[in-house]
Amino acid sequence: MKSRHRYSLVSFLLAAMLMSSGCTDFYEWNGSLEDFLRSQPHRFADVMRNPETYRLQVIYTQIDRDPGNRPTFTSFRYRVDANEYFYPASTVKLPTALLALEKINKLNIDGLTRDTTMITGVADDSQSPVITDSTSPTGLPTIGHYIRKILLVSDNDAFNRLYEFLGQKSLNEALQAKAYTDTRIMHRLELALSIEANQKTNPVVFIDGDQVIFEQSAQKSDIAFVNEAPILLGKAEIISGELHERPKDFAEKNAYSLQDMHDVILALIFPDAVAEGRRFSLTEDDYQFVYRNMSAYPGDSGIDEYSGTAEYPDGYVKFLMFGGNEERIPPHIRIFNKVGDAYGFLSDAAYVIDTENGVEFILAATIYTNANHTFNDNLYEYDEIGLPFLRELGQAVYELELAREKTTLPDFSSFSFLE
């Protein structure tokens, strides 16, 4: 992901004032997301004039607690359709990271943890090795540090290494077994590889000094996971600098429906509230590790490459509420999320909390901004339409939640890192 245009200081101060004062546009919630969006034309009119063009989908889930702090969920949807394809981009990194932790736990090998050094080898010319990691505290690559890089700055190579550790077939079969049936993760990111090359994954070895803890040979999936029918979008595509005037076929690309995206967030944050088969097999320490890094900011990571630079503001991977580039986010707001942006598609799925005001909700949305219907020309309306929409959507739902009466405020003590 690349650094995006930054919003003005005035915009940030206005958002901070809204949050601290609890001010909100008067709106009486009637259970309709469409009515909610249309009720605020100053925020959403441009997109709501033609939501089909923007391929807009939104899921908003209210959370209510009983006196024992047990949650119940009420979800509202707008234009949610698993058959209306959107390119998920980096959002696929979250389930991949969770499955990598799950695999470590299921292997159950003495000395094998998320912090064990993992060396990635090669099995053919399309693959690349990893022996060191300059951003890691030890200078060595690990599953845990790859996950940190994914959650903090959405690092693409880190995802690719987890994809290789899991193997294409095992990754997709694990998702299917958990009933995330509208998801397929079938290729690495930011690498132009063939279908066959993506079926193949690198050998890896976990070591502790000179001792080999676990070794996994190169793998090849016997299933390609390509969508059965073409998924044709747009009118043209640029490949190697040459314009091809024909739709782009996304049948060979990853897919991750908005409902699955929302449900992974729900299963991660509230594992006891979902069926056992949909949960990820994580330890309590794994959960706290993911929560902490998922809601952290690049500048607070202790990683020199991410700290003290304009490239990685607090809001870098926070599209909902903060538009992807707020310089500072108030400390009482925590967003547990994963974003994605590519080919004109912008997506975010988040669990949002306000520890001062007892606010919590889940929000997931995707929007498509590609007015000239051409892919790979980098002329997408991210800054003009997509990011402002997601920012305003998150702010509007947050304001609605500030005003919503609750009989029991949430207890956030389960997030031990907040104490």
Molecular structure report:
30% of the residues lie in helices and 20% in strands. The protein has helices at 9-21, 33-38, 41-48, 93-107, 143-153, 156-166, 168-177, 195-199, 258-269, 284-294, 382-403, and strands spanning 57-65, 71-78, 117-120, 183-184, 200-201, 204-208, 211-216, 219-220, 232-233, 236-239, 242-244, 248-249, 255-256, 333-342, 345-354, 359-368, 374-375. It has a five-stranded antiparallel β-sheet, sandwiched between helices. Strand 14 and strand 15 form a beta hairpin. The model is unreliable at 2-25 (pLDDT under 50).
The end-to-end span amounts to: 31 Å
Q: Largest sheet, if any?
A: 5 strands, antiparallel
Helices, by number, come to 11
Q: Are there runs of 5+ residues with pLDDT below 50, and where?
A: 2-25
Q: List the secondary-structure elements in sequence, H or E.
A: HHHEEHEHHHEHEEEEEEEEEHHEEEEH
Q: For the CA atoms, what is the radius of gyration?
A: 21 Å
Structure characteristics:
disordered N terminus, 5-stranded antiparallel β-sheet, 3-stranded antiparallel β-sheet, alpha+beta
Topology:
Layout: H1 9-21, H2 33-38, H3 41-48, E1 57-65, E2 71-78, H4 93-107, E3 117-120, H5 143-153, H6 156-166, H7 168-177, E4 183-184, H8 195-199, E5 200-201, E6 204-208, E7 211-216, E8 219-220, E9 232-233, E10 236-239, E11 242-244, E12 248-249, E13 255-256, H9 258-269, H10 284-294, E14 333-342, E15 345-354, E16 359-368, E17 374-375, H11 382-403
Parallel strand pairs: 10-17
Antiparallel strand pairs: 1-2, 1-16, 3-6, 4-13, 5-8, 6-7, 9-12, 10-11, 14-15, 15-16
